[in-house]
Design a protein that fits this description.
This protein is of the alpha+beta class. The chain is built from two helices and six strands.
Length: about 100
């Protein structure tokens, strides 16, 4: 069954280690806060912090969730990450997204 994608978000998070990425993915999927979680790693991030350009190796997580579950997902993830972004999904999505 397809559903309107306007009710769903893709959440992107970066973390500092593979172990941290594994823990977050297991937690958010296990708690049904995200339908899935992919780990893309490692990536090299370049950013401005403390008045200078810095670089670090990070792991990128991509998660799909509903708008209704986003706040709980963000609270769970924010404890372990400095960066969290969302993008609305477009079109239609399969019904498996965050079924409870």
């Amino acid at each position: 069954m397809l559903q309107n994608a306007s009710d769903f978000l893709e959440v992107r998070v970066t973390v500092g280690s593979r172990e941290e990425a594994d823990r977050i993915c297991s937690a958010v999927v296990g708690q049904r806060l995200a339908a899935d979680c992919q780990i893309i790693a490692p990536i090299e991030s370049t950013y401005w912090r403390a008045g200078e350009i810095q670089r670090s190796e990070e792991w990128l997580l991509l998660m799909k969730t509903t708008i209704g579950r986003f706040e709980d997902l963000a609270r769970r993830v924010w404890r372990n990450s400095q960066d969290l972004w969302t993008s609305p999904l477009r079109g239609q999505v399969g019904s498996s997204v965050c079924q409870g």
